[in-house]
């Protein structure tokens, strides 16, 4: 491959990281890429000042980062993990609300609790949050795909 | 910017060590990823190497956990930089981690018979 058309090591590295971040929102993904790019360019500048050629300086900078796929996966996991935590808190809060609401309703009516009430509560506590989370995940994936 | 090269690089620090050092460096003021890594290397006379591959996932986790805050800062010359600041929760977490760290070092010292008894305070004396 001619030297002019060969991808620069830093660009190749960033593209590999970016591939792992494809499900993040576009602005967050761009922010991650820009931050890593700046750090890599600063490292490469330091290596060039030490006498390395541009290509070798870029390779040395990339080597300090390690495997692009691993970094991309860990960055994605850091954001994804938070989203999973938010979903879990939402699930718990909504389930607690449903339980309290049903118990208050039956208490106000003065009726005995029906035997099938736990199933009704479980169905109500699961259905709406599941639908909401499914819609949110689809929305985020569409946003990432349109990047 | 300071960068020190050694003929044989020391082993990169582990994730927990990087978390502790990042929080510590940021107690002195806001900084960006490259400067944090170089500060640790410079202050340890290149004995410690903060692997960049570990640094960014750690920064992101600390940020997501609310221990750091970040923003893109524009500077007069050059591109905008993402700058990190330690939050009050981050300072509390640093204190907790320092207590744990001291406790472990002390326990290891007792086992090895080399416990620190000089009373000398090092760079982490802000705790």
Tell me about this structure:
The complex is a heterodimer of chains A (147) and B (127). Chain A has 147 residues and is mainly alpha-helical. Chain A has one domain (3-145). Chain A has five helices and no strands. In chain A, helix 1 runs antiparallel to helix 2 and helix 4 (68-109) runs antiparallel to helix 5 (117-145). The longest helix of chain A is centred in the middle third of the chain and has 42 residues, at 68-109. The two termini of chain A are 30 Å apart. With 127 residues, chain B is mostly helical. Chain B has a single domain (15-111), classed as Winged helix-like DNA-binding domain superfamily/Winged helix DNA-binding domain (Arc Repressor Mutant, subunit A). Helix content of chain B is 48%, strand content 9%. Chain B has four helices and two strands; from the N terminus they run H-H-H-E-E-H. Chain B has helices at residues 15-26, 33-43, 52-64, 88-112; strands at 68-73, 81-86. In chain B, strands 1-2 form a two-stranded antiparallel sheet. In chain B, helix 1 packs across helix 2 (33-43). Chain B is globular. The mean pLDDT of chain B is 86.
Rg result of chain B: 16 Å
Instruction: Give the C-alpha Rg of chain A.
Output: 25 Å
What is the overall pLDDT average of chain A? 84
- Describe the largest sheet of chain B: 2 strands, antiparallel
The number of helices of chain A is 5
Instruction: Measure the end-to-end span of chain B.
Output: 28 Å
How would you describe the shape of chain A?
rod-shaped
In short:
The complex is a heterodimer of chains A (147) and B (127). With 147 residues, chain A is an all-alpha fold.
Features:
heterodimer; A: 147 residues; mainly alpha; 5 helices; B: 127 residues; Arc Repressor Mutant, subunit A; two-stranded antiparallel ribbon; 4 helices
Structural topology:
The complex is a heterodimer of chains A (147) and B (127).
Chain A: H1 9-20, H2 26-49, H3 54-65, H4 68-109, H5 117-145
Helix pairs in contact in A: 1-2, 1-4, 2-3, 4-5
Chain B: H1 15-26, H2 33-43, H3 52-64, E1 68-73, E2 81-86, H4 88-112
Helix pairs in contact in B: 1-2, 1-3
